[in-house]
What we know:
The chain is of the alpha/beta class and about 280 residues long. The chain is about 30% helix and about 30% strand. The protein has helices at about 10-20, 60-70, 100-110, 140-150, 165-175, 220-230, 250-255, 275-285, and strands at about 1-5, 25, 25-30, 35-40, 50-55, 75-80, 115-120, 135-140, 155-160, 180-190, 195-200, 205-215, 235-245, 260-265, 270-275. Ribose-5-phosphate (R5P) binds near residues 213, 214 and 215.
Amino acid sequence: MKIIGGMSAQVLAARIAKELGCKASLCEFKKFPDGELYTRVVDDIKDEEVTIVQSIIADSDLVCLLQLIDAVEEASETKVVIPYLGYARQDKRFKPGEPISARAIARSISFAGIVDKIYVVNVHNKAVVEYFDVDTKELDASSLIGDCIAKKEITHPVIIGPDEGAKELAKAVAAPHGFDYDVLEKRRISGDEVRINPKEVSVEGKNIVIVDDIISTGGTIAEAASMLKARGVNEIYVACIHGLFVQNAALRILNAGVEEIIATDTIESVFSAISAAKMVAEELR
Ligand code: R5P
């Protein structure tokens, strides 16, 4: 099998290749003077089984992925691993005239009929998987976060999702290790007063791990951390699957009193302490 690492997933592709005992094929990536991308798979992939690994973080990552798929059309089998599928938060039409961006992206990847199988890691909304026209499987990295927290030997950690949408993730992280978990709930007390509280679990004096699928601007996590501090929690850790950390996200989170930020390598950053490579390699094997 040949592993082809796109521009946005070089390290993860190399790690997946290592897990599988093969080498990641070299590619050339350049920009033309007008900004268009030039992509070339250097190795001969004719009649080979090929797996392309490429996250969609920036718009150009999608172009790169489409180029790589087209470049390997002579492969005997083509699988695509999308560790982070951007645009998955625009998973429906919120206002008339809007596109369902997640569907547009999924259709473009499946369109040419070259791809045989697609893997995505923790898509923001599971329904997005249905938008792909080829066999697509979602891989779940939440247990990797749970294992990482367990290794840190944090005393009786309570896993907290910042909103109802993070409940399943909090449960999946906590349950295998028997950690308590909960989500935060926003309640309007009066016209100008909003209180955010954990729904069920008492957090005072506890060590907290706030978990979310995506950290983008860090606003959600910073707000949750500040609120939990005000409720008298002990240490706060933060963990996510996909760490975009746009603008000053890391600083906002750390300024809110967070000890440590942990993310996976679906998006490579200094916080990528957890690798999804083994999980992906086991699926490809
Ligand atoms: C939203 O539904 C997601 O699960 C995340 O909570 C959100 O994307 C985080 O964004 P930010 O870091 O900008 O608050």
